[in-house]
Amino acid sequence: MNQSEAKTTLRWLNSNPPLQELMDRYPVEWEEAGGKLVAALENSRALTSEEAATKARSDLEIWTRRIEKSGQNPQVIESALPHLIKSRMLLQGLEKCYLAAASGKASGKIRFNLINGLIIQRLLFRKGLERKPVSLGWFKFWWPLISQKRFLMPLVQSQGIYCFYSRALIKALAGLINRRSCLEIAAGDGTLASLLTEAGVPVTATDDYSWTHAIQYPGQVEKLGAKEALEKYQPRVVLCSWPPPGNPFEKEVFLTASVELYVVIGSRYRFAGGNWEAYTGQQRFEWQADPRLSGSVLPPELESSVLVFRKKK
Length: 313
Known about the structure:
313 residues, two-stranded antiparallel sheet, 14 helices, alpha/beta
């Protein structure tokens, strides 16, 4: 595999291709990953599938870091690809099994049992799949009582929902924005911007509408790519929730002179989202993962991380 092929394959893999596409392209790797999947699901210990998922996420993290440390060396990429492929296969396979167990099929309407469904609906949603700011107190009380909690995210991610925002998070973000002009890029259905606006902190939501297969974009989400939105609004604060892994647009945030603060809500696992090359390569901002904000993103099983970039003085 030459340098161009290795990097092209890595970019394709980071675009999160569906499991069937991975299986068709890499049947040998699927034979091994599929065997691990079956073993995890057949084992009588309830935690086995969770342990398998944790191990797969860890392997992805390790090999992704090796690639980053090598400076995208094609030989390192070539060595890493089989591990990355098998780990992604296993995680997607487990996700499909969770979904099937919860809904009775691999896709379709959410079908929690009556009690779980009622608690989840009242706790996290206003109506349908419209998310609301979640009370941390009520969440900590009710969440342990939900027996189907591991099925929630696989069910809602197909609708473009990657996390839930607590009232504490919204309040903390409002304090960080502090009346400055604020833009959300890759806003999806605009929930984060909407909740902040309701809290008295106006946020302009934008998205390139590339997820029309999963998201019904509301009118308040302006159809604009990140670069165009940054050029148009010249914001002082930028927000982004669960940016795709290795995306091409976050680097534009660091190149926009008006930006003083950039907040990214995502996973602590680098393979799962964000442009870490842009994060580590920029020189204009000091940054860190904020543990208080990270703990205010729900549910905790996501192992979320909120990165805060502040422009150097």
